[in-house]
Write a structure and sequence with these properties.
The chain is α+β, with helices and mostly antiparallel strands and about 350 residues long. It has 11 helices and 8 strands. The chain has a 5-stranded antiparallel beta sheet with strand order 1-2-3-4-5, with no helix packed on it. A hairpin with a 4-residue loop joins β3 and β4. The protein is globular.
Length: about 350
């Protein structure tokens, strides 16, 4: 059987000759395949033809020009913003606020994400917001709340539109219940760690894993992650630790984040570990951290100190993920997920 690579069988002019405007993509592929067979190729020929009508400009345009739009005052219930009617604020954060709204153009529910103008004074942060929206659109995973396209020119201010998600904020759930059952946390962990493995394979670091950003659908036990502010968080981590901890939630930030705010998957592993620790205990492994001076190895408390009934394999996995030194943590999310395996009782309340 004769084998040869397609570029060897066909020169560039022969391939370009098949890519004419009069043919659709399937006929172009068929034409190239026939030309290759005529040239003598005998192995299976697989050809994909994709027509690219437009390439995004260097701004990674998502309908927001880098310098055209600025952070606007936060909306009020009942206000209409660019054809979106604000219904209620779903979550208040330091970086972003999330509002349930209705798109009056098609009567569809949406979730609008507005950056807090108090933390958007530097023009670089506007660019970071645009980069984060663009990057979130490249991630296709059921855990991440999906971005909704907004027609170019519709936005009069800086904000993003997400698909509407229903459920309970995990921080609120812990506040209501005290702590979650191990079985429920394992279901949450499997989804969240699967998402982290997915983005880490693409060399993307989330940087903002915490219960406040996670919505649990109590009916089917699926989760949605709201926040994606990787570039903005990296911006603040590059500032002084004193400045950064006034803006960011220090309890979920790995100790090395302030020294090395680059791409290190183990910082997300740490944040996930602290999140699961909190879900199971209502406490934090290093106490109530408010500044970098508060976090010291000697302050670490194993998770079973606050939940003695926790299965040993889950306790060991969470303690390892929360290790002070990054090299002592799991190398990746899959390893963390495997370590938490085991049958434990659930909780459907």
């Amino acid at each position: 059987v004769q084998t040869c690579a397609l570029p060897i069988c066909l020169d560039g002019s022969a391939i370009i000759g098949a890519l004419v405007d009069e043919l659709d993509a399937s006929r172009m592929a068929e034409s190239i395949a026939k030309a290759a067979i005529k040239k003598g190729i005998r192995s299976r020929v697989s050809i994909i033809v994709a027509r690219i009508d437009r390439v995004a400009d260097e701004n990674r345009d998502v309908g927001i020009k880098r310098h055209d739009l600025q952070a606007r005052p936060l909306p009020k219930t009942g206000e209409t913003v660019d054809g979106f009617e604000i219904r209620k604020r779903r979550r208040k954060g330091r970086l972003s606020h999330y509002y349930a709204a209705e798109d009056l153009l098609d009567d569809a529910p949406v979730l609008l994400k507005f950056p807090d103008p108090a933390y958007m004074e530097d023009s670089e942060l506007t660019e970071c917001f645009v980069q984060d929206e663009w990057l979130s659109r490249q991630i296709s995973h059921p855990v991440l709340a999906k971005a909704v396209s907004v027609t170019r020119g519709r936005r009069s201010g800086l904000y993003s539109a997400l698909e509407s998600v229903s459920g309970e904020n995990l921080a609120q759930r812990v506040k209501r219940k005290g702590r979650l059952a191990p079985g429920e946390v394992r279901l949450i962990a499997g989804q969240l760690l699967g998402f982290l493995e997915h983005i880490h394979q693409q060399h993307i670091i989330h940087r903002d894993i915490r219960p406040e950003n996670i919505i649990l659908n109590k009916r089917n036990k699926t989760i949605h992650l709201l926040g994606f502010d990787s570039h903005r968080i990296q911006y603040w981590l590059k500032q002084s630790p004193e400045t950064a901890t006034k803006v960011l939630s220090a309890r979920y930030l790995a100790p090395e984040s302030f020294r090395e705010p680059g791409n290190n998957a183990r910082t997300d592993i740490f944040a996930a570990g602290v999140t699961f620790y909190f879900l199971l205990t209502g406490k934090f492994p290093y106490g109530n951290i408010k500044s970098t001076d508060d976090m010291m190895p000697a302050k670490f408390r194993p998770v079973r100190k606050y939940n003695e009934d926790l299965p040993q394999e889950i306790a060991d996995a969470i303690d390892m993920a929360c290790a002070f030194a990054p090299e002592q943590r799991f190398i990746g999310a899959t390893e963390f997920m495997d370590a938490m395996s085991g049958e434990v009782p659930g909780d459907d309340r």
